Amino acid sequence: MKGNPLKTLFTFAVALLFGSPLLGQAPTPVPTMSGVAQPSNIDLTLTGATGARRPLAIPMTIAPISPDLQTRAVDPFYTTLTDDLAGSGVFVVADPALYPKGVRPPQSREEGDAWKATSAQFLLDTHLAPDGGNVIVEATLFDLGTLKSILGRKYSGEMRAARRIAHTLASDLVRQFTGKPGPFLTKIAFSSDRDRVAGKQVVKEIYTMDFDGDNQRRITYSNTLSLAPDWSPDGTKIVYQSYEKDTPGLWLIGKDGGDKRPIPVPTQLNASPSFSPDGKTIAYCGSVRGNTEIFTVQTDGSNLKRLTDDPAIDSTPRWSPNGRELAFTSNRQGSPQIFMMDLEGANVRRVSLAGTWNDEAAFSPEGGRLAFACRNDADFQICVMDLATGRTVQISSGPGAHEGPTWSPDGSKIAWELQRGDSTQIAVGNADGSGTPRIVTSSGNNFSPSWIKTLE
Amino acid sequence: MKQSLKAGSVVLAALAFVVACSPKPAPAPAPAPTPAPVSTPTIVTVEPPAPTPQPTPRVTDEVMTKSLSEISSYLKPAFFDFDKADIRPDARDVLAANAAWLKKYTSVHFTIEGHCDERGTAQYNLALGDRRANAAREYLVSLGVDASRIKTVSYGKERPFATGHDEDSWQKNRRAHFVVTAK
Predict the structure, then answer these.
(1) Looking at chain A, which residue has its C-alpha nearest residue B125?
(2) Are A193 and A130 in the same domain?
(3) Which of A337, A341, B36, B95 has the CB geometry, 3.0–4.6 Å to A348, for a possible disulfide?
(4) Chain A positions in Cβ-Cβ contact with residue B165 (cut-off 8 Å)
(5) How much is the average pLDDT of A420-449?
C-alpha cells in the first residue's frame, strides 16, 4: 500500500483541501490523478491508505434566496454539508472557486467537462426553497463521467433543521458509496468543567453534543465531579462515575437527563464504567482495600463479579463488540499496558507491546481494531492497532496530550481528548489518520468523549 | 478571695474527676452535682493556680476551636514519585509526624485524598490516586492510628493543587492530601 499512486492521490486531495500553491498556480484542468505526480512536503506518514476519495463539486443553490433564508437555512446547510463530506474520508470537495457558472445540471458532454475541469468526478446539485416556515432541499448526485444522476433526494423541514437535513444528505451520500451511512447524525457524550464557579473547586458535568460540536446540552446537575460517560448500546442511557455521594459511584442517566439512578456496588473508586454490548452489564474499575480490580455488575447492582486478581493497578475496562472479552490497563508488568481477558477473567494476554505507557483502549465497532492512548517518551498520542496483525498506526500528531479515544459507530472516525497547555478540548479525526482533526468544543475544558454506538 | 479561689479549684478538680469518669466528655461546668465538694475542708495550701487551669487539655481546645480546614493544615501531605504509590523516605517522616498529631487529637476523623499529576491518563490516575491514598492510610494504621478514623478518596488528576505543566507542579500534585472531616 505504499505505492506512489496512492501518495499522489493524497497529495492531490490535501492540495485541494488547503488550497496549496502547488495547484493554485496551475488551476487549469487536472484531468486525471496521475497529472499531479509532483513531490510534496506534506507528511504522508499518517495517511493510513483507505483508498480513493471521490472528488466532488458542491455548488450552492441558484434559486433566488431571501436574506432570511440565506442566514437561517442556506448558510448553515452548506457549511454543514461541506464539512461533513470533506471530512468523510469518502469525498474530496473540489475548490468552489473553480466552479463554472450556470452549467447545471450538466446537459452535455461539454458542460460535464466544464465541471470535470474543477477536478470533480461527481457533482452534487442542490436546490433550497422556502415552503411556508419550512425549507425544502432537493439534491441530485451526477456522475460527471456518464452524466447520469445516481442519487436523488428531497428533504423538507423547519428552517432550524437545515443542519440536520445537511447531515442526513451527507450520510445518504456516504451510504451510496460505502454501503453504510456516515456518522453525521450521531452524538458524543463528554464531561465538561464549564459550570465551575470561579474560585470554587473544579466541578464537571456530563454533556452531549452532535459529533461536530453543535447542540451541546448539559445532562447532569451534580455540582461535583461527574466523569467518564459511556453510552448504552441503544443510545437511550449513559453510565458515568460521579462523586455525588461521599464516595465516587456509578450512575445511570437518560440521554436527556431524566431517570437518574445509582448502581449500588460495595467497592470503592468505581471508575471507568463501560456498557456491555447487550446493555445488561457494566464493567468498571473498583477498589477493594486499596487495590483496584476489574469488576462486572448488572445495571441494578446485582451479580457483582471480580474479574482480575492482581496486586498491581488494573483499570479502564472496555468491552469488545462481541461481548466476550474486555480490554483493560494494568501495570502488572511494570509500566501501564493494555491487556485482554475473557469474562471469567481468564486468558489474560498483553496486547500493547511497544511504548512506555499504553492506556484507555477502545474497540472499533467491528472489533478488529483497538484505539488507545500511546506514549513513548513525549505526550500521549492516539494509536490504532489492527488486532489480527498487531500493526499499529499513530493517527494523531502534534503537540499536546491526546487521550481517551472513542470510535464513531461506523468505525470511520475517532474522537479524543486533547490537552494543549491549559486547554483541554474534544478532537474528532478520521480513524485512518487522514485529514486534519477538528476541535469541536471550546467552552471551558472538555474531557472523556464517548461516541454513541447507534448510527441514527 | 484566696479562700474562694481554693474552694473553686477544688470544685473544679472534683468536676474534672467526674468528667473524666463520665463516658462522654462534658464541655462546660454546667450541671454540677452539688454535695461532695462543699463539705470538703481546705487543707493544703497550693500555689495559686494559673488563670485558667488544666494546661494540657487547653492546647487541645485551642486547636479544636479552629475550623476543619484550619485543623486540616496540621496534617501535611505525603508526596510520591511519578506513577508510584510507594511511601518515600520523606513521606515516611511526614506521615510519622501526622500520626503523632493524630494520636494526640484522637477525636479527629479525616479523609486522605489521592492525587496525581497530569501526565497519566484520567482513568488510570483515578486508580493510581486510590492506591496512593490507601498507601498513606496503611502507613498511618501501621503507626497506630485507628483505621476507623480514616476514609480515602481518589481524585486522580481532577483537582490539581498546582496548575503548571512542569515538574514543580507535577510533584505538588502527586500527593496524599489530608482533609479533616470531624473534630
Answers:
(1) A315
(2) no
(3) A341
(4) 421
(5) 95
